[in-house]
From TrEMBL:
<dbReference type="InterPro" id="IPR052929">
    <property type="entry name" value="RNase_H-like_EbsB-rel"/>
</dbReference>
<protein>
    <recommendedName>
        <fullName>RNase H type-1 domain-containing protein</fullName>
    </recommendedName>
</protein>
Amino acid sequence: MHVKLELLHFGQFGIIAIRFIIREPVNEVVGFIKAYYAKTNVARERLKNSCAIGHFVWEPPVNDTIKIILDPSFNQLTKFSISGIIARNKEGLIMAACTYLWENIADPVMAEARACLQAIILAEDMGF
């Protein structure tokens, strides 16, 4: 199968969209998709059987404390990091939420450190 990829938009943060141009009969494309789907299902079952996949469940903090959860992401090509931070009380109500864009981040460890620092600053600014 021959597939041509056409870049639709290349923004500041990377590829925004790609269009696939397929010049094959429809029945060959459908056959390829079905075979690919079957392979991914087999891989998914093997993964499910080979390792325990846990689900994160938020648990409230004790007493009148605030729980702050952070989740940084890192793009090695652009050296950008985006951090998401959420602060919740014991009832689960969101007390604060924010995202931060960081430039010139060297590695994932630095992205995590920046997110931790920003979470501390957020907590101080909010009076937590």
